[in-house]
Amino acid sequence: MIGFKTLAVPGPTNMPFEVRRAMEVPLEDHRAPDFPEFTLPLLADLKTIFRTTSGRVFVFPGSGTGGWEAAISNTLSTSDRVLTSSFGQFSSLWVAMCREFGLDVVNCDVTWGEGVPLDQYHAALEADTAHQIKAVLVCHNETATGVTSDVGAVRRILDDLGHPALLFVDGVSSVGSLDFRMDEWGVDVAVSGSQKGFMMPTGLAIVGVSQKALDACAGSNLPSSYFNFHDMLKMNEQGYFPYTPAATLLRGLRASIDMLTDEGLSNVVARHHRLANGVRAAIDAWGLRNCAVAPKWHSDTVTAILVPDGHNANDVIQAAYHNYGVSLGGGLGKVAGKVFRIGHLGWLNETMVLQALGGTEMALRDAGISFRAGSGVGAAVEYYTDSRKPLTLAAE
Question: What integer pLDDT is reported at residue 396 of this predicted model?
Fold first, then answer.
């Protein structure tokens, strides 16, 4: 196929040229005497993306799933009770991992399309007067259904009840894209990955850890070797890693951090909200429905779109890819065949979103889904142009 393919999945995301160029370097000695001159500022600046001054951020070769394992294995013990909720493929997989580690899981099974059930969390924590719940898990942004949950509200519940449980957050598709405040929200372990908001290839599990979580490691009896926080902390203090790091990816991470901080995190958040609103305008114009059941759940990084009854979302995905070179996200788990997903995060602007929407419209027509051609793209164009601040033109 002539021309660029359009990457419109919720990860991996588009990679900026700056990141690509940063990684186009000869392989280097990760034990070199001057390696800390690169790594120490990198790790310090990475904390700004998580918005933490008191915590640490560790970078493991791996993916977000490795970060989940790190959160569990470092801080908890066999049979510890954890409060969880499942409302999509990724929140459910984290719950499954907790069970595989032999934890006592109290899970809130929520309708897919909703998010963390604050009322159920409050009730469970209020009833736990003996403080047997050792950790509370929150999937900040459920990528499978395009749902964002209120992490700050969970922290307020814990604080209001005086509950000492650790707060774990899956921020894989939110950190670096959505508003995320590790210190302010009292997050003890925040898990992210390189292939989404960090605009990089897959390969890094990026994990923010509070001092409270580091202290909890002393009481854990779960096995932790590759993802051991204290092994990483000890070596990071010197600017090194306990085993071979993905040094080339770290060079890309340096460029990513610079790009995010140059734009300004508040501007990054605002840009993602703006882009997402255009996608949502397109969905309404097509006469389709968002998988997220209410605006309060709408994600600004990924939208899952329900196809009408009698249609298969996979037909849209196949047509988009094979006919027009557009990669859309597929439905996972309970929503397989029912939704297709448009990712709108990372290195992205309005015209790139319009490209994805145009390809989606052609695929919808090929799949036999009825709508007025151009309606979605037109609605997004109207939103983007009407909501843009007018330019101040210089006087002639």
Answer: 42
For residue 279 the two structure tokens come to 């996608």
Give which of 87, 108, 120, 84 is closest to 293, Cα–Cα: 87
| Interatomic CA distance for residues 209 and 188, integer angstroms | 6
* Res 71: pLDDT: 97
Q: What are the φ and ψ backbone dihedral angles of 57, each rounded to 5 degrees?
A: -120, 125
The H-or-E segment that residue 161 falls in is helix 151-161
Q: Which residues pair with 303 in a beta bridge?
A: 342
Which pLDDT tens digit goes with each residue over 267-281?
999 999 999 999 999
CATH code that applies to domain 18-262: 3.40.640.10
List the domain boundaries for the chain: 6-12+264-387, 18-262
CATH fold label, 6-12+264-387? Aspartate Aminotransferase, domain 1 (3.90.1150)
- Pairing relation of β-strands 204-209 and 56-61? antiparallel
What are 188-233's pLDDT values in tens digits?
A: 999 999 999 999 999 999 999 999 999 999 999 999 999 999 999 9
Q: How far apart are alpha carbons 316 and 370 in whole angstroms?
A: 12
| Under-70 pLDDT residues of the chain | 390-396
The residue among 161, 160, 158, 149 whose CA lies nearest residue 188 is 158
Separation of first and last alpha carbons in the chain? 46
Q: Which long-range contacts (CB under 8 A, 24 or more apart) does 225-229 make?
A: 226/60, 226/66, 227/60, 227/62, 227/66, 227/69, 227/70, 227/73, 227/74, 228/74, 229/58, 229/70, 229/74
DSSP letter for 71, please: H
260, 49 contact by CB (below 8 A): yes
